[in-house]
Amino acid sequence: MTRLRLSLLSGLAALPVALAGCTVGPDYAPRSAAELGVPDRYSVTAAPTREDLTHWWTRFDDPVLGQLVEQASAANTDVAQGLARLRQARESLVQSRANLLPTLNGSGGYSRSETFRGGGQSVTLPDGTVQNVGGGGGSNFSLGLDAQYQLGLFGEVRRTVEATRAQYEASGFDYATTLLSVQQEVARNYVLARLYQAQLANARASLALQDDNLEIAGFRVQAGLVSSLDQEQARSQRAATAATIPALEQQYNAAVSRLGVLTAQAPGAVKPLLGTPRPIPTGPRVVGAGIPADVLRQRPDVRAAERTLAAATAQIGVAKAALYPALAISGNINTNAGNVGGLLGTITGGLFAGLTQAIFNGGRLRSQVRGAEAATDQALAAYKGTVLLALEDVENAIVALRTAQDREREFAIALDAANNSAILSRSQYRSGLTDFTTLTQQEAALLSARNGLTQARSDAATALVALYVALGGGWDATTVPVAPPRALPAGATAAPVPVPTETESR
Questions:
Q1: Alpha carbons 298 and 162: distance in angstroms, whole number
Q2: Strand partners, 334
Q3: Whole-prediction pTM value?
């Protein structure tokens, strides 16, 4: 039995090498930057050097921001969903690769038979009847091994594995895209929270001045130096400023609540962390953007689109292979004996092969080929669109950062001038050298300049975050994200599973 089984199994193992034919369908070839419409340089001024932006949030030198981004990267529910989809894609690849090997099924059985004949021994049963139990009988043991193999003569199995592998890699890059998006959203809401804190401080500072103005106007009315018009104007101005505070508090609460959810916590969980006001984070004023071709390597969404195109290309081969013959091979080994020791005495086996070829299917198979080709054209267009969108993101972020920095510089000048004007106006009003309208106008200009400078700083920080993400910062672009070998409990880590190589074939 051993020699027969080994001969059968070795024959099955050698069949892929001996019988595997050509692989139909186009082989995937990566597109060049020129084919994708990538220019040699950006149309806006950008530093040509390329920086390592894997942990871009550390460039803001804000420990609270860093803590929130890293917590969201580890625990965010969208990131967890992306990881689950990646694990699911990994299992699809495992299932696809299983078709590269034969399927083996074992069986075993036992039966017992009895033969009753006349003249044997009689036995009186409890109910008084007499039964003849004489005769003979025996046991039967059986073992069997079946093997089936679907040989991809024209590469349908290899192309299926190729497509599944590309889809697995695309899922890894989709996971990284989700990760970057969450990081950007955390940083954006953190900047907004600090912006609203600063605007609340500006509003309360102006409210304190307006309380003083109202008191001064009341004294001057009582002294008969001015009419009650000044007092009413002071009341109106104070109420208008006070009315902005609840709206700012609502916006601040929304930003903080969003941060809680992004870090997979209750909406109010991070309020103590942000309770102490801090300045709006500021990063470097110049960022090395590199060249446009860098987005092909750095942006995970671009790399996901490229892998999707590779998967669609492989599916053309799968569809074309259905037009050609398919070979199925099966074999079996069986043995029967009356006792366990005799199972090796008599062994039977067989090897079978069957060839099928589609003759008439109403054009369905050729239509599937044309459909796969159309899907590849669609994937190519989506790939190009993703690349161009990435370049647009980079250029828009570069311009947004530069213009925000220009506005910040001009608002700093405006704030200095408005502060001096407000001081002079207040002194002159106290001395009766100017009217209350002039004072209110100058103090309104002061509040506007403060808020303008605060908003410009916030816009600069937000644009800097957008530029970091647009350049593909926030992940290690030298690796392909892979799923852990199994589902792990929260907080646990696992070594990554390497992506299968391209050497697998049928």
A1: 23
A2: 144, 348
A3: 0.83
